[in-house]
């Protein structure tokens, strides 16, 4: 299966980047691709074999979905892997370059939307994350 990769360099510490990526109180502030959407609820138990659920929805209430999966591998401050409900796999690596953290996110695309659209959406969320971390 084809995979798509997005990445960003975050100018902060690995401790802060890891916390903001994994803690629901932060996830709700950056986990959406466009300003018209939001992530009003995030629940996770960051342990291998545990699940997570992030609510993604349009601010006007016209549509939404739950982004749900199961963590399959976690290496603190280094790696998160999970499987989505439909079986697709996602891998996120965190590489500490002393003051800059490189996040590389690789995922198996779904079949409903064009690959370019999926890549742009995931990159937009990662860009939101970078902006959120660097401004807090």
UniProtKB/TrEMBL annotation:
CDD domains: SRPBCC_CalC_Aha1-like_4 (cd08897). It holds the Pfam family AHSA1. SUPFAM superfamilies: Bet v1-like. Residues 13-134 form the Activator of Hsp90 ATPase homologue 1/2-like C-terminal domain. It comes from the Bacteria. This is SRPBCC family protein. Gene3D superfamilies: 3.30.530.20. InterPro entries: ASHA1/2-like_C, START-like_dom_sf. Belongs to the AHA1 family.
